[in-house]
Structure formats: C-alpha cells, structure tokens
C-alpha cells in the first residue's frame, strides 16, 4: 500500500519532458519566495525568470533564461509537495527516480553519481544523471530534501551541447541560497556502535572512497590489559571528481591516538567514532591515498568480557568490528554500493605463551624475547566482520576429508577426547552441509576457540565457543554465519533477517538432512512455537524492520527461520534449494538486498515471504 501511495504522490512531480503547468505568470525577480511552504531560492543568473505554478498538493517553480523554450533542456525546477509519513527518504528518492526519470528516459538514462548530504539542516539525497529527450541530450542533477512530511526537490538541467561547468556556478548559487523555514531540523542521529557482529560502516554516509586493503598490527600487553592498534588503509577515490577529505568510522569504544598520511600527520575532528580527515592534497579519480590509524583499547572498555565482575589479564578476548571503515554498504536511496571487499593482513604481537586467532590463513609464527608474533591473511573469501581472539591457547587439530578443524583450548580447559571428537564431528557435519547447500568456501580449516563469552558466536571459518559443551543446533547455526553474514552479507531493509534468520533456518535444515524429515518438522514447529510465545511478551513485527536487540532477537531467529521454511514449502524443495544456493553463490564477497531475495524466489514463495517481511 505504501508503494501505491508513494507513486500517486510523486506522480504529481514534474516528469520530463512536460513540466507542471504554469498558471501564475512570469516572475522577473532576484529571489522567489513561497510563503505557504516557507521556501525561497535565488535565481542562477540575472537574465533568468521564475514561472511558478500549482496543482493539487504541489507547488512547482520553473526557472530558465528569459525567452528560452523549455525544450532546449536549459532550466531548473523547485518542487514543493508532501509525502507519506511512513516513508523514508530512501524510498521517496527511489520512487522519484523511477517515476520521474526512468519511466521517461528509458534506456538513455545513465546514473552518474548518487550520494547523501544535508542541505539547510535537513537530510537530502542527490543524484546526477544524463539522458535524451526528443533527440536532445542533457545532463541533470536533482536534490531530494525531506523536511518532516514535506518534500523539497531541486532540479537542474543543462543540454549536452553546453559545457555543464559554464552554468554550474549559477546552479550552485541557487543551492547555496536555498532557505527552508518552518520548525528546526531534527539533527542526524549519531552513528550507533555495536560491539557484537555489527554491519560495516553503520552510521556512515556514502562516500567516493573505497578501502582496497588493510595492513594491521595488534600489540597486546597482558600486564596492562591493553591492546594497541596500528592500521594502514589503502584507499582509492572511486568518485567522478577529486577529493581532499574523507570520513572514517571507528568503533567509539576505542581511544584514537593519531592519524597519519603520506603527507604528514592529520588531526581528525569528530565524535561518536566518526573522524573527518582533511588530506594535505586532493586525490584525483581512481588515484590512491594511504591513511594510518593509531588507537588503543584498555581494560575499561566494554569490548573485553567480564570475568567475575572484572577483567582477567590472563584471559583476554577481542572480537568486534575493530577496523576503521570509510563507506557504508548502501547510500540513502537504498541502493547497494558496488564495492570490492577489502583484503586484510593482520599481524599480532602477544606474550610468548599466548596465541592469536583470526579468519583466514596463518602465514607466520615466531616466538622470541618473550613475545610471539603471528600473521594472518585473508584467502579468496573476505570476512565482512573482522574478528580475532587472543589468549594463552593450546591447539588440538583433527583433519579428514580435506577439512581441518582446529580446537583452541584455554589454559583452564579440561576436555575429554570423546568430547573433542563430538565437537569436531558437529562442526564438520555443519560445514559439509553448508558447503553442499550454499557452495564451497575456499577455506581448508575451521577454528573453534574456547572463550568466556556468554554464548557461541560465528565468523568466517571461526567459531568463538562460549562453552565446549555447546549444543549441535547452536554450532550448526554459528558455522552457517561463515556463509550468511560474512561471505554474503546483507544491506538495506531486512539485513538482520539475513544475518540471524538464515543461520537459524540452516541449523534446522542441517538437522533435517542428517537425521530425517521428522526431526526437521519437529524443529520447525518448535521455532514457530517460540516465535508465537514471544509475541504476547514483546509484540509481533515485520522482519524487514527488526534489529537484533530486545525485543527483536527472538523474532529474527524464530520467525525468520519460519519464514524461510514457509517459502520452501510454497516453492517446493528443488526450486527452493536452487534459489537459496543461487543467492549464496551470486552474492559471495558482496551484498545481498531484500529485492534480490524476492527476485530470486518464485512467485509462490515471494507471496508467502511478504506476509512475514512486511
């Protein structure tokens, strides 16, 4: 229903090639003001005029050179309207693109750039594009601004035969002179820092920078319970213009010491983990820049787990999104940013009785002078959420059928051979099932690390075990995160359903494949019962709107698993198996969106999933 309301509302906006009808005559004045919407703009040049017009619920102002026809595609527009309160700016901007541009320009439409910003104190989405109308090629820029339940759209056009730079200064004058009255703008919320398997770059806007590689060194001092990080990022400007600044997000629990570039030290400015770096020299498109972050984490930070109410210096543990990030997975229009996963080289310097474990492959280990130095590198698949563990570990390895399972035991762990064999067997069974169901990952080893965490957590080829007597269902679920949440991660609405619901369903599917359909049916009924039992206490909610905090955690897992099982029943086993395998293979080392999921499943499964998602 929301989509229909959006289309109806946005269809009133002027769509090329016919602007909104003008009914109040030409205004030859330096500034146009609309008292109803409390909006004003200056004209770009002295010889331009305004032609305001109104239609139901919408005011439109066309501004262009005096005496020039609009068919020349040299004009701008200010559109003032309202939009449904339940819609987000991303939804509105996407509908605007589809209704007012793509449907008119068809195959000639080319998106040059998309990003987000704030104009006059309000959130805005920006798109630069080109196309052809009536054999006239033109370039356009559009800014969609959300002001409470009002929508302000600024559109600028220039024919292809005219150099855009020749009128860009005038259009910039309009943009800079935009005045939006009314209630004060709501400030943008600070980026949310998550210490447990967060989505990368949460809270960051889209930016032209891409991180191609990380080279990190972590030095841990067990006496001081302090970890010092040195992280070099190799950045590439993937935007269409030069850039002399970058916005970087670092989990706020860290204490940032300094930032250095090749040109010298840069002082970051910002709060809530976001640093705004002004580079010494502008970086041209497709050129690179190296930035090195120095920061530390001490015992006072919440990243280290409590041990009897405090912190144990001989049993440290670190696992969270600890690398600096420069770009979010999606822009404000909801479109996935197509970026390559960065590669990691992680070096560790720890006491000689300690070891470090991270996703990937250990390439070096040297112990001398009371310290142990280890290096881990990513392989052909990169982890979305970087994680590692440190501690006085000893290693027990079991290898068969091409897969090695390494158990990293803490100093106080005492485990029988039978228990180790059962643990290894469960991990191997889960890995083989996921490999057959979702495609093999190019990893030869899986590590299970004993920790003091309250529960088991999974990363790419790395399971942090809260207790070595963990149930098979929990191990199956956390092994599945190597695929759902790491090899394939989600962006946009329903992201947390993919990260939580897909692994939970995988655990049920694995048990069913190994123990029979009767077991599968029982586990599905139990998941549905736990979902319905949570509703009277926490209330029900659409999966696309849930996050993994109370009361959403149980719904994400149990309702999320029930949704996938319902889709499997609707589409049939063979079609569902093919669809979910396609999702895993086609989006490996990339981002998965809700639309891609719905497009992959057949119409019957889509219809069922929508009842859970929306």
Describe this structure in words.
27% of the residues lie in helices and 33% in strands. It has 11 helices and 29 strands. Strands 15-14-17-12-11-18-21-20 form an 8-stranded mixed sheet, with no helix packed on it. The longest helix is centred in the last third of the chain and has 22 residues, at 417-438. It starts with a helix and ends with a helix.
Question: Which descriptors would you attach to this protein?
Answer:
Immunoglobulin-like; Protein Transport Mog1p, Chain A; seven-stranded antiparallel β-sheet; globular
How much strand content do the residues show?
25-35%
Average pLDDT figure: 80
Number of strands: 29
Choose one word for the global shape.
globular
Secondary-structure class: alpha+beta
Query: Assembly state here?
Result: single chain
Low-confidence stretches: 1-24, 183-202, 300-313
Profile the largest sheet: 8 strands, mixed
Supply Rg.
Answer: 27 Å
How far apart the termini lie comes to: 11 Å
CATH topology of the largest domain: Protein Transport Mog1p, Chain A
The amount of helix comes to 25-40%
